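Hi R.,

Here's the chain you asked about this morning:
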Amino acid sequence: MDGPIRKLSFIVAKGAFDGVYPALILANGARAEGIETDLFFTFYGLDAIRRDRVGRLKIPTVGNPALHLPTLAGALPGVSAAMTRLMSAKLARHDVPTIPEFLDMIADTGAGLYACKASADLFGLSKDDFIDRTAGVITVGEFYEIAAGGQIVFT
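And the predicted structure, written out as tokens:
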């Protein structure tokens, strides 16, 4: 591609704390640069915009090599919650918004937050199950129409 990036669409397919933050950081940065941006939440990524889960995402500790924890230690009760609290505190010290705050900020800039209809149907979810900032529950084809002319980024 020649020239500056003008449009980005992020596909968020992971619902873990550390799977959602990269997309939000990148989308927020793109909007700050004036780049047209949309986020498409699919499969477990739907947890990031579900009313009942948006503020409760956790860091998976079993089999997460970046944590440098033995698998058995990561499986102990409370380890995932403790690691999530630790990371949340680190992010707060650096003035990084929480996931719900990031979603509001990004939506406030005009970025679209979309839920995947196929995934929502699979999990028995409707528009009412998602945060108010969700612009719609759309098909993959509708997402491709929205993303047309831009780059698609999987996070």
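The chain has a mean pLDDT of 95.

Let me know if you need anything else.
M.
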